[in-house]
Every structure is written in C-alpha cells, then in structure tokens.
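User: I'm designing a mutation panel for VOC domain-containing protein and want to avoid disrupting the core. Could you give me a predicted structure to guide residue selection? Please restate the sequence first so the numbering is unambiguous.

Assistant: Good idea. Sequence first, for numbering, then the predicted structure tokens:
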Amino acid sequence: MNLLEIHHVSLTVRDLDDALEFYTGALRMRPRTDRPDSGVRGAWLDLGAHQVHLIEGTPPPAVGQHFAVRVDDLDAARRRLIDRGTDVSEAVAVGSARQAFLQDPSGNHIELHEPAPARGPQPNTASGQEKIP
C-alpha cells in the first residue's frame, strides 16, 4: 500500500450557489463535470492537480468534512489499517473510483481514494481540457 498524495479536501457549505460563486469567482477554481450523483448536493472543483469538494448542508458524517488520500491499492490499505486495529469502512465504488473511510484518534474523517486505472486522455474540467495521465 502506498499513500501517494492528497487527492481532495471536502468542505461543508451552507449554500452551494454562494460557495460556487466564491470558489469559482473569487478564487478562480474550475468546476469539474465528473461528479457522480451521491444523493447529496455538492460540486467538485479543480485546484491545480488537486480538488476541493463542496458539500451543501449537513451531509452524513462519512461524506462531510474530510480529506482524501490517494492510494494505489485500496484493499491493501484497508487490510493494513484493520490489522493495526483501525476501524475502516467497506470499500465502495463512487463513479469510476473506489473509496473507504476511517477516523484518526481525534475523530477527523479521512478518505482512502483509489482512482480508476487511467485509460488515455480524460476530460478534466468543464472547459474541456484534457488530463493526460
């Protein structure tokens, strides 16, 4: 299991429209078009090579405020953490990726994020730019 980098930071916002205006207008982050429908109102934004996820209202704890670490093997990461006595959620598919959640000793939520294998150029933003793996 390799922890590769921060994949995204997820923030809870009171009003998604106001938050989008701020993050895309004032901070010039770019909206993504690949957010799967999770039943929670939100938006994904690009910030350089990383993402900021905005979640409106009071989402379930596991999808609220957290940061995500990209891993190369989610199953191996889960096994290693469980073997150390850490509670880790089951792995679930979200869009083309897989994720699992855990908490640090202070109760902060952490997502383990395993992206789908890259298959050539992929759309990255609403502007039509391509992300070359």
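For picking mutation sites, this is relevant: The longest strand covers residues 3-13. The chain has one domain: 3-118.
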